[in-house]
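Example record

One chain of 448 residues, shown exactly as stored in the release files.
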Amino acid sequence: MSGVDRIVRGGSVLTPEGFAACDVRVCDGEIAEVGASLRSGGAVEEIDATGMLVLPGVFDAHVHFNEPGREHWEGFATGSHALALGGGTAFADMPLNAAPPTIDRDSFERKRAAGEAASVLDFALWGGLIPQNLDRLEELAACGVIGFKAFMIDSGTADFPGVDARVLRAGMQIAARLGLPVAVHAEDSEIIGRRTAEMRAAGRSDARAFLDSRPVEAEVEAVRVALDLAGETGCALHVVHLSSPAAVARVVAAREGGLDVTCEVCPHHLLLDERAMFQHGAMAKCAPPLRDAATRDALWRDALDGRIDCIGSDHSPAPPGMKRGDDLFAAWGGIMGCQHGFLLLLDACGDALSAVWNMLSSRPAARFGFGDRKGRIAPGCDADLVLIERTEERPIRAEELRYRHRTSPYVGRQIASRVARSLLRGTDVPFDREGLQPGGGRFLSRSA
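Predicted C-alpha cells for this chain:
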C-alpha cells in the first residue's frame, strides 16, 4: 500500500467494538486500517506496542489554559504539554480566565492565534455567555466555537460575570437557533451567597466552612433551573463538573424525558474527597467542592453505570500565591490535574476501562462535533493514538509536573500507568520539557 507512514503493532487496541489484540496502520495522518497481523507494505516505521494499551487520545472538553493575558497562570504551551503526558491529544479551552475572555470575534481571534502559536495538541474553543454579549453570540458561532459557556454564579473573575435566569434563557434561545450547546457551571448563587455570609459573620474561613457554604442542594437547584430553561428554549445543554449523584439523577431523568442534555464529571470528584482539602488546603479547593467519601463513591457508581456522559479535567491553574493562606474563601478555586487525573482513573477503573476511556475520548468528541475525526481508533479518523504502559506503583513527584507551576493535590499519590508515546495525526508529540517546541496543534472548528 503506497503512502503508508507507520504501523502500531502488537498492542491491546481500544476499537469502537472494544479491546482487540491488533495493529493500526497510519497513512497521511489518518487511521487507514485496523486489524490483526497487518502487512508492512510501504510503512516507513513500525512502532512496537507489545504489552501496551493503544487508546484513542483524550478529547478534554474542559480546560482553562488562560492565554492570552494570563499565561503566567498557565498558557497553551505548558498546559497542552502536560495534557499530552496525561493521555490527551485534543482539548476545548474555556472562555474565561484569559484576558480578555472569549466573548466576541476579536477576543476569539486573539485566543485562536495564541493557541496556534503554542499548543502542541489540536484544540477547539468555547465562546462565553455573559450578560453583556448576547449580541455577539452569532459572531462567535461564525468563528467556529463549539458552544457557549455560562456561569450561574460568580465566576471568580470580574471580566466574566455570571448570568441570572433571564440572561440564560435569552442566551439559550440564541444558541438553539444557532444549533450550538450551552454549557453551564451549575451552582445556585442565592443558596451559596446566604451560606457564605453566615460563615463570614461567624468569623469562619476554614476548609470546613468553605465546604459547608456550597452544599449539594445548591448544585441540584441550579441544575433544575438550567434543565427547565433548556426544555423551554429547545437548547442543547451540557452541565459541567457535577459533583453529586443527586444532580446526575436530575440530568438522567431529563434526558430520559427527551431533553438534549449531557453531563460531565471530573477526575478530582471521582478520585478525591473532602479530606484532601483538610490535607492540602486551597490546593484542593474547587467549585463545586470535593464531597464526602460516600458521595464520591456513589458518583463513581454513576460513571460505571453509564449515567454520566463525559469526563473532563477542568484543569484550572493559578500561581502558587493564589492558592495559599488560611482564608479558603479568598483563595483561588481550581484543581491542577490534566497531567495525571486521567491516568489515575485508568488505574482505578478495573474492568470498566473501555467505558471510562470512552467518556474521555469518543463521547466528548461526538458531543461537541468531532466524532467523525477525533476520539476513535477507526479508519478515516485522525491518527491520535496514546500508547500506555502499566508500571510498578510510584509516587507522583512535583518535579515531573509540566505545568507552569509545579503544584497539584495529586503530588505524592501512587500511580501505576504512564504515557510511553503519543501520536497526533500520526506524528509524535514531543515530551521533552527542555526541548519542547511549542506549536503544531491545529484549531478545530465545529463547522469544518
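Notes: The chain has two domains: 4-54+381-393+409-428, 58-367.
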